[in-house]
Design goal:
It contains 25 helices and 33 strands. The mean pLDDT is 90. Helix content is 33%, strand content 20%. Helix 17 links the parallel strand 22 and strand 23. The longest helix has 20 residues. The N and C termini lie far apart (72 Å). The protein is an alpha+beta fold. Helix 1 crosses helix 24 and helix 18 packs across helix 19. It is globular, with a radius of gyration of 34 Å. Among the domains are: 193 residues, Alpha-Beta Complex (Isoleucyl-tRNA Synthetase, domain 2), CATH 3.90.740.10; 49 residues, no CATH class; 161 residues, Isoleucyl-tRNA Synthetase, Domain 1 (Orthogonal Bundle), CATH 1.10.730.10; 61 residues, Ubiquitin-like (UB roll) (Roll), CATH 3.10.20.590. The chain binds one RNA strand of 87 nucleotides through helix 7, strand 9, helix 10, strand 13 and helix 11.
Length: 859
RNA sequence: GGGGGAGUGGCGGAAUCGGUAGACGCAUCGGCCUUAAAAGCCGAAGUCCGCAAGGACGUCCGGGUUCGAGUCCCGGCUCCCCUACCA
C-alpha cells in the first residue's frame, strides 16, 4: 500500500467519520454529557442567504476563520457553540418562482442542499444537529411569536405612510433597500406612494441603541455607522405663525435655535401638507407645477444630479416668533424647495443663509437677504460668507454676546416662555417599515375584523402557515399574492367573529433578527428556546461576517434583542459581544490601454504579466471585485478538487490578515499544498510500508538538534497563539512553515512529542491531515478534542544573541554575545566587531540597548 | 461634501516598545538528483555602481523630532470601502 498524501481520500474519510460520530455535537445544559465546569464560547457566522449560484471562494473566508477559532477553543477545553443555518425567506427565490413557476420553497431547499454540501466539503466544525432554516414553519412559528410580543407592547402598528413602491417588484421596500431611487435587489426604479403598512417602532429604542454600543467590542467604524444611521440630533421645534387667518402655525425643527434672528426665509418640502393651503392664488400655478415635477423626480435627480438648488416662492409669509410682529425683519417669505425632505424633522425649515451652507446656496441663487447672527469667537467682523461653526451671537437682540451653546439654551427658553417652541430631539432613524406585498415571507399572525380592529393570533394557533397558491406574482394593482388564497384568508377572531387574515408578509430581515437565539435550543416546540439554555449560552462571544451588515441586520437584531430583554426572556442587553468583519476577497483583473477591464478568460498570464489573447496587447494588472461579468469568480469546489480542502483552508488563512481585503491569486495556492506535502513527508515515508515513521511512535529525547527544534516549535506555537488576537493567522502559519523547514533539514531529530504538538497546532487550519497524522501516531481520540499545546517559555529565550553594531545609526557590524552581558561588555564586543572603522574617529556618545544594539555616535 | 481604512521587492504579505526593513509563501535564477523531464532536495535574490572586497540609495511625496523613523509630529498625493442636501 502506497503511503502518499492523498487529500481527497483522507478528507472524505474524516468528514464521514465526524459526521457519523457526531464529533462536533455540542451538548446543552441538561444533556447527559454536558460538562458545566467548562467555560462557554459561542462563535457564530452570519448565516448565508442560499442563492442559486452557490458559494464562491470569497464566501467561506470568514467561515474558515471562525472555524479556526472554534476548533482551538474546543481544544482549550471550552464548550463551544458553533452552528450554521440558512436565511431562507426573501426576494430572489420569489422572483425565480414568478419566472419559472417553481415553488420558492422547493428552489430554496435545493439551494440549501448545495450550500450545505459546499460547507461540509470545507471541513467546518459545525454542530449540524442545530441547523435551521428561517422558512421552516417550526422556525417561523417563533418569529411570529416574537412579533406578537412586539404587537402586545405597541411596538408593531399599521399606518398610512409614504413608502418606496417598486413597480417592477410590485412591492414596497424599506428606505435601506432603495439606493438612489432604485431597488437594491434587481436595480429597478422606485417611487413614493402613500400606503397602509406595518411599522415597528424601532425609534422608541433609538437612545438605547446608541448608548449600549459603548458596552460591546465592535469595530469603531461599525459603531460609528450605527450612531450616524440613528442620527440623534438635539435642537428645538419652533412654531411660526402664518399671516393667514385661522391657519395652524408652521412648525420647523432646527438644531440652531440660536440663529433664529438670521432666518430670512422658510422652506417646505414639496410634499408638505400645508403647501396647498398657504400658497397664494398668484403663485399657485407655479407651485403646483414644481410640486408635481418633484414627485416624479427620483431621489437621484433630487440629490446627486441637482448640483444647484431649485424652489419657488409660495407667496405666503410667516412671522418670526422671537421678533415683534411690527418689525419688518419678522416677516419671512415661505418657499417650496426639494432640498427639504418630508421624511426628516417636520418637513419644513427656517432657513438661515448666514450659517447654513444649503440655505446660503439657495439664498444666493434667489437673491434672498443674508443676515449674520453669529460671529466666530474673537472676531467681531461679519461677512457675507457662510459661517457654520460655533461663535458668539450678534444682531440677535437679547441673545447678543452669548456663546453658541448658551444662546441655544436661551433661545429655547425664550420660545418656551412664549409658548412658541420647545426642546426637541430628532432622529434620522425612521420606524421600520415591516411589511411586504409578497408571498415568500412570514405571514403576519393577526386577523382583521369587519369593525377595523386588529387581533393578534393566540400563541397556541401559531404558526400561521403560508398557504399554497398557484401564482406567486403580486397582482397588477399591487395587492399581495396571499389575497388570492381565499380559503386561507377567512379566519376567526379570538371571540369567534369572522375575520380576515393579513395578506402581507414580513421582510427578509425578520428571520435573521433572532436566529442566534434559536441555535441555543433549535428543536424546542414549546418555546422559542429554553430559558436555561439561553442563560448558559448568554450572548454571542464572537460574531463574524461582512461589513455590509454594519447597519441593517445588526441594528434590527439589536432592536429585537432589547425587546426580548424587556420581556425578560433574554438575560443580556446586547446580542453580539464581539464583532469581527472579514475583509473582502478580490481577484486580479486586467485593464487594456483604454482603461477597460478585460474579462479574465480572454487574458493569458505568464510571469505575472497579462496579455490579451486576441490582440497580444500587454495589460495592466489591477485588483477588482469577483464578478460574473469579469469572469474572475473562483469556485471552491474546483480548488478543493485539485488541491484538497486543507490546502484551500490554509491558503485562505495564509493570504493575509483576516480583516484585510486581498486578492485571490491562483498561482499562490500550490505553495500551501507544497507545505502540506512537506508536513506529510516529515511524518511518513511515502514509498515505505509503515503508516508513520517508526521513530515517531516512541518517546525519544534526541540531541542538540532536537533542542534547537524545540526552540523553533515553541516559537511557532507562540506565534500561532498570538495570531488569535488580531486574526492574522498568516503569521502563525508562516511560523509553522519555518518549523517544517527546520525539521526537514534534521529529520532524525524530530521527537514524538514534538511531532504531536506540531500536529495539534496545525489542526485548526488543516484539520483533516491533522486527524490522519494524529491517528497514525497511534492516538485513538479525535485531534479536535485533544489538548491545545502549551508554550514552554524557557525555549523562547536564547542564551546567545546577535548584537547589532551601528556607527551613526548605520549597521557596520554584528557580534554574538551572551544574554545578560552588562553594558560595558556589550560596548567592548561592539568595538571588536567594528574594528578599525572607529580608528581616528571621535566617539561622542555610545548608545547601548541590551538585547538589541550598540550605536557609536561619532563626529 | 462627510466618515473609515490603506500605500513596504516582480506579486501576496512580515517587522511587540522608535532599534538589523523585506520573515513566510509565490514567481525567477543556479546547483544536486535524473538518460531526460517533472517532482523533490540545497542555495541565490530590494535597487543601482563594482570583477571583487565594498559602497550608495531604499517602506507614496515633502519637511520635522531623534544617536537611530516603515513606526512619532506637520503638510501634501494616490487608491479602496461606506455614506451622502438630516435642517
Amino acid at each position: 500500500m502506497s503511503q502518499t498524501y492523498e487529500p481527497r481520500e483522507i478528507e472524505q474519510r474524516w468528514q464521514s467519520k465526524w459526521d457519523e460520530e457526531r464529533t462536533f455535537r455540542t451538548p446543552n445544559p441538561g444533556d447527559d454529557d454536558f460538562d458545566p465546569s467548562r467555560p462557554k464560547f459561542y462563535v457564530l457566522d452570519m448565516f448565508p442567504y442560499p442563492s442559486g449560484a452557490g458559494l464562491h471562494v470569497g464566501h467561506p473566508i470568514g467561515y474558515i476563520g471562525s472555524d479556526v477559532v472554534a476548533r482551538r477553543a474546543r481544544m482549550q477545553g471550552r464548550n463551544v457553540l458553533h452552528p450554521m443555518g440558512f436565511d431562507a425567506f426573501g426576494l430572489p427565490a420569489e422572483q425565480y418562482a414568478i419566472e419559472t413557476g417553481v415553488h420558492p420553497g422547493e428552489f430554496t431547499r435545493d439551494n440549501i442542499d448545495t450550500y450545505r454540501r459546499q460547507l461540509q466539503m470545507l471541513g467546518l466544525s459545525y454542530d449540524w444537529d442545530r441547523e435551521l432554516s428561517t422558512c421552516d414553519p417550526k422556525y417561523y412559528r417563533w418569529t411570529q411569536w416574537i412579533f406578537t410580543r412586539l404587537f402586545d407592547r405597541g411596538l408593531a402598528y399599521q399606518a398610512e405612510v409614504p413608502v418606496w413602491w417598486c413597480e417592477a417588484l410590485k412591492t414596497v421596500l424599506a428606505n435601506e433597500e432603495v439606493i438612489n431611487g432604485r431597488s437594491e435587489r434587481g436595480d429597478h426604479p422606485c417611487e413614493r406612494k402613500m400606503l397602509k403598512q406595518w411599522m415597528l417602532k424601532i425609534t422608541a429604542y433609538a437612545d438605547r441603541l446608541i448608548d449600549d454600543l459603548d458596552g460591546v467590542d465592535w469595530p469603531e467604524s461599525v459603531k460609528t455607522m450605527q450612531r450616524e444611521w440613528i442620527g440623534r440630533s438635539e435642537g428645538a421645534e419652533v412654531d411660526f405663525r402664518l399671516e393667514l387667518d385661522g391657519a395652524d402655525p408652521l412648525t420647523v425643527f432646527t438644531t440652531r435655535p440660536d440663529t433664529l434672528h438670521g432666518a430670512t426665509f422658510m422652506v417646505l418640502a414639496p410634499e408638505h401638507p400645508m403647501v396647498p393651503e398657504l400658497v397664494t392664488d398668484d403663485q399657485r400655478g407655479e407651485v403646483e407645477g414644481y410640486v408635481q415635477a418633484a414627485q416624479v423626480k427620483s431621489d437621484l435627480e433630487r440629490t446627486d444630479l441637482a448640483k444647484s438648488k431649485t424652489g419657488v416662492f409660495t407667496g405666503a409669509y410667516a412671522l418670526n416668533p422671537l421678533l415683534d410682529a411690527e418689525d419688518p425683519a419678522a416677516r419671512v417669505p415661505i418657499w417650496v424647495a426639494d432640498y427639504v425632505l418630508m421624511g426628516y424633522g417636520t418637513g419644513a425649515i427656517m432657513a438661515v443663509p448666514g450659517h447654513d451652507e444649503r440655505d446660503h446656496e439657495f439664498a444666493s441663487a434667489y437673491d434672498i437677504p443674508i443676515r449674520q447672527v453669529v460671529a466666530p469667537s474673537g472676531c467681531e467682523e461679519s461677512s457675507d460668507a457662510c459661517f457654520t461653526g460655533d461663535g458668539v451671537a450678534i444682531n440677535s437682540g437679547e441673545l447678543d454676546g452669548l456663546e453658541t451653546a448658551e444662546a441655544k439654551a436661551a433661545a429655547i427658553q425664550a420660545l418656551s416662555d412664549r409658548g412658541t417652541g420647545r426642546p426637541k430631539v430628532t432622529y434620522r432613524l425612521r420606524d421600520w417599515l415591516f411589511s411586504r406585498q409578497r408571498y415568500w415571507g412570514e405571514p403576519f399572525p393577526v386577523v382583521h375584523t369587519a369593525d377595523g380592529a386588529v387581533h393578534r393570533v393566540p400563541d397556541e394557533a401559531l404558526p400561521v402557515e403560508l398557504p399554497e397558491v398557484d401564482d406567486y406574482a403580486p397582482a397588477a394593482d399591487g395587492s399581495a399574492p396571499l389575497a388570492r388564497a381565499t380559503d386561507w384568508l377567512n379566519a376567526q377572531a379570538p371571540d369567534g367573529t369572522d375575520a380576515q387574515r393579513d395578506t402581507d408578509t414580513m421582510p427578509g430581515w425578520a428571520g435573521s433578527c433572532w436566529y442566534y437565539l434559536r441555535f441555543m435550543d433549535p428543536h424546542n416546540d414549546v418555546a422559542p428556546f429554553d430559558a436555561e439554555a439561553q442563560k448558559y449560552w448568554g450572548n454571542v462571544d464572537l460574531y463574524v461576517g461582512g461589513v455590509e451588515h454594519a447597519v441593517l441586520h445588526l441594528l434590527y437584531s439589536r432592536f429585537w434583542h432589547k425587546v426580548l430583554y424587556d420581556e425578560g426572556i433574554v438575560t443580556t442587553p446586547e446580542p453580539f459581544q464581539k464583532l469581527f468583519n472579514q475583509g473582502m476577497l478580490t481577484a486580479f483583473a486586467y485593464k487594456d490601454s483604454t482603461g477597460r477591464l478585460v474579462p479574465t478568460d480572454q487574458v493569458d498570464v505568464t510571469d505575472d504579466v497579462g496579455v490579451k489573447r486576441e490582440t497580444g496587447e500587454t495589460l495592466e494588472q489591477v485588483i477588482a471585485k469577483m464578478s460574473k461579468s469579469l469572469r474572475n469568480v473562483v469556485n471552491p469546489d474546483e480548488v478543493i478538487e485539485e488541491y484538497g480542502c486543507d490546502t484551500f483552508r490554509l491558503y485562505e488563512m495564509f493570504m493575509g490578515p483576516l480583516s484585510d481585503s486581498k486578492p485571490w491569486n491562483p498561482r499562490d495556492v500550490p505553495g500551501c499544498r507544497r507545505f502540506l506535502d512537506r508536513v506529510w513527508r516529515l511524518f511518513v515515508v511515502e514509498d515505505g510500508a509503515d503508516p508513520i515513521k517508526p521513530a515517531l511512535l516512541q518517546d525519544g529525547d534526541g540531541g542538540s538538534q532536537t533542542e534547537e527544534l524545540e526552540r523553533h516549535l515553541n516559537r511557532a506555537i507562540k506565534r500561532i497563539d498570538d495570531s488569535f488576537g488580531p486574526f492574522n493567522f498568516n503569521t502563525g502559519i508562516a511560523a509553522l512553515m519555518s518549523f517544517v523547514n527546520e525539521a526537514t533539514k534534521a529529520p532524525d531529530a524530530l521527537t514524538r512529542s514534538q511531532a504531536q504538538r506540531f500536529v495539534l497546532a496545525l489542526s485548526p487550519f488543516a484539520p483533516h491531515i491533522a486527524e490522519e497524522l494524529w491517528a497514525r501516531l497511534g492516538e485513538g481520540e479525535s485531534v479536535s478534542r485533544a489538548a491545545w499545546p502549551v508554550v514552554d517559555e524557557r525555549y523562547l529565550v536564547d542564551e546567545e544573541y546577535e548584537l547589532v553594531v551601528q556607527i551613526r545609526g548605520k549597521v557596520r557590524g554584528k557580534a554574538m554575545v551572551p544574554k545578560g552581558a552588562d553594558n560595558a561588555a556589550l560596548e567592548e564586543s561592539a568595538r571588536e566587531a567594528v574594528g578599525e572603522l572607529l580608528d581616528g574617529q571621535e566617539v561622542v556618545k555610545v548608545i547601548v540597548v541590551p538585547e538589541r544594539l550598540v550605536n557609536f555616535v561619532v563626529k
